[in-house]
């Protein structure tokens, strides 16, 4: 599974993407729990999850071959 990080998350983790080796299907909520175990420094951050370029809900499914993007809220003026 490829995970893409944007904006603040990219800066905190000092990487724009990573490969996660998982062979199991999981919900978005389970994926987030796994991610927070690996990167506790982003647990308090707000972001939306997109799977294969579509925003998803917590109960949607993530497959091992998917691309998951974590997109923080955008501010501007």
Automatic annotation (TrEMBL):
**Its pathway?**
Cofactor biosynthesis; molybdopterin biosynthesis
Q: Name one GO biological process term.
A: Mo-molybdopterin cofactor biosynthetic process
Keyword field: Molybdenum cofactor biosynthesis, Nucleotide-binding
Spell out the subunit comment: Heterotetramer of 2 MoaD subunits and 2 MoaE subunits. Forms a stable heterotetrameric complex of 2 MoaD and 2 MoeB during adenylation of MoaD by MoeB. During catalysis MoaD shuttles between the two heterotetrameric complexes.
Q: In terms of domain of life, where is this protein from?
A: Bacteria
Metal-binding among keywords: no
Which NCBIfam families did the record assign? moaD (TIGR01682)
- Report the sequence similarity comment from the record: Belongs to the MoaD family.
Q: What is this protein called?
A: Molybdopterin synthase sulfur carrier subunit
| Any one GO MF annotation of this record | nucleotide binding
Q: Gene3D superfamilies, alphabetically? A: 3.10.20.30
Q: Which GO terms describe its cellular component?
A: molybdopterin adenylyltransferase complex
Q: Does the keyword Magnesium apply?
A: no
Q: Which Pfam families does the UniProt record give? A: ThiS
Q: What does this protein do?
A: Involved in sulfur transfer in the conversion of molybdopterin precursor Z to molybdopterin.
């Amino acid at each position: 599974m490829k995970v893409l990080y944007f904006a603040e998350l990219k800066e905190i983790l000092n990487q724009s993407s990573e490969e996660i080796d998982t062979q199991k299907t999981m919900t978005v909520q389970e994926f987030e729990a796994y991610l927070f175990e690996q990167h506790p420094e982003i647990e308090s951050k707000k972001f939306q999850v997109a799977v294969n370029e579509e925003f998803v809900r917590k109960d949607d499914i993530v497959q091992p071959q998917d691309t998951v993007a974590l997109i923080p809220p955008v501010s501007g003026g």
